[in-house]
Amino acid sequence: MKRETAQIKTALDESVDLAAFAENWLGVKENDDVDVLLAEIFLEEFKAQMPRLATSYIKRIDSELVVTQITQRTAAWIEEWSEELGRLMKLTAHREVENLLAVHLHDGKSVAELARAFMDSGTREEYYRARTASLTEMLRAHSVAQQEAIIQNPAVSEKEWVHTGSYRNNPRENHAAMNGVLARKDQPFSLVGADGSLYFPMYPRDTCLPAGESINCHCIHRGIADADMLGLSLEERKRLQEEAIAADDGAWERERDASNMAQAGIEENLLTNPRKDNIIDTEGLNRGEDDNLRIPMDEAKYNRCKTAFERNGGEIVSSPELNEYLDMRGADAITYNQYLIVFRHGSSPTASEFFEEFIHTSQFRQGRVSTGITVELEIEAKEKLIRNQAQYGIPDHENEQTKNQLRVLYQILNNER
Ligand SMILES: [Zn+2]
Fold first, then answer.
1. How far apart are the first and last CA of the chain?
2. 190 C-alpha to center of ligand 1: Å?
3. What is the rounded average pLDDT for all residues in the chain?
4. What local confidence, expressed as pLDDT, does residue 325 receive?
5. 110 Cα: distance to centroid of ligand 1 (angstroms)
6. Which of 23, 70, 335, 410 could form a disulfide bond with 274, CB atoms 3.0-4.6 angstroms apart?
C-alpha cells in the first residue's frame, strides 16, 4: 500500500501538469499490483483465522470437537474472496485518485495542488486498514466459519437463520422475515431481496448476495443439533466429522465438474431430455452381457478406494454363496447399506460397477434409502457415473451402456407416474 502511494506520488511529481498526470496515471494503474499484495494478506489472514473461528463455533454444539482441517469448498472460497477483496480495494483506491483528478481538472488546479490533496486525502493506510477490518467483512468471515462448523458437525443436519441487530440498525423487513427459517445444512436459504429477486445464500452475507443485502446485516445462522448423534462416542463423532468433510469435498468436486462441463457445453450432449424423448432401448439393465467387452477397473484405483472405504468402516465382500444371492436378485453387485457392498465372486468389478455401488452407499448414508434403491436413486447414480466418467476412469463403451440403462430407467420412471 505504501508502494502504491509512492508510485502515485512519483507519477504526480514527474508530471508537468494535470493532463500529463492523466496520461501517466494510466501507466500507474496498469502496473499497480496492490491487489495481488492485498490478496496475499487476506489469504494469510483468512487461512489463519478460519480453523480457530470454526472451532469456536463447532464447540457451541459439541464442546469436544475441534476443526483442524477445512473443506475444499471453504478453502476455495478463501482464495477467491481474498482475490476479490484485493481487486475491490484497488478499484476503490483508483476511483479515489480519479475523483480527485476530475475535481482538480474541473477547477483548473495545478498538479502540485492535486499532489497535496492526494497526500492529505486521508491517511490512505488507515483507510485500507478500516476497510480490511470492516464489520461486514468480519461478520462475513464469521458466517463462513459457522457454516464450516455446521458442515463438519455430524450432529447437525439443519441450520436456522436468525435475525438480530434490530436494536442498532434499521432492520430489513426481508431479513426480519427470515428469522427462524430452517434449511438443510448443505442447502441454501431462499431470500427475497430488497430488489424483489430471489437469492440463494448459504448463510447471511454470503458473497452470492448483492452488497446491499450484506452491508450492515447483523443476521446470523446457527446449527440445530440432533440429540441422538451427540450420544455417540467422541471417536465416532470424530470419524463422522472426517466423513462429513470428505462428503462435502466430494460434493464440491462434483459441483465444480458439473459447472465446468456446463461451461464447456458438454451437458448438452448428455441425456438431459430423455424423460421427454420416451426412448426405450432394448439393451438390458445388466452389464457385462458381452464378456469380451468387460474391462476390470484399474487395480491401483480399486485398492485405493477399497482401503479408504474400509478405513471408514466399510466392507467389500464376495463369495460363491453370495453369487447365488446375486443371481437370485439378478444383479452383478448389491449395496446392502452404507458399509457393505457385495461384488460377484470370480470376476473383478468394472469401474462402472464399482463406483455405482459406492454412490449407493452415500445414498444410504444420507438416509435416502428406506426399503431399497428406488428408480430415482438408480437414475441419480447413473447420471453421476456419466458426469464423472473421466474421474472414475470409465471406458467409453461402459459409458454408452450406462446411457442405455438410463434410458430404460427414465422409461420406467415415466410409466410409474
Ligand atoms: Zn440481515
1. 64
2. 13
3. 83
4. 78
5. 46
6. 410
- C-alpha cell of residue 13: 511529481
Please tell me the distance from the alpha carbon of residue 164 to that of residue 175, in angstroms, as a whole number: 9
Residue 209 pLDDT exceeds 90:
yes
State the distance from the centre of ligand 1 to the C-alpha of 77, rounded, in angstroms.
21
Q: Calculate how far, in angstroms, residue 301's C-alpha sits from the geometric centre of ligand 1.
A: 47
Residue 222 CA to ligand 1 center (angstroms) comes to 14
Distance 337 CA to ligand 1 centre (A): 41
**Ligand 1 geometric centre to CA of 171 (Å):** 7
The per-residue pLDDT for 288 is: 45
pLDDT tens, 224-247? 887 777 678 889 889 999 999 999
Distance 327 CA to ligand 1 centre (A): 58
CA of 174 to the centre of ligand 1 (A): 8
3-state secondary structure of 86: helix
Strand order in the sheet with 220-225: 182-184, 156-162, 220-225
pLDDT tens sequence across 254-312: 888 877 776 665 444 344 333 333 333 333 444 444 555 788 988 887 887 788 788 77
Residue at grid coordinates 424423448: 277
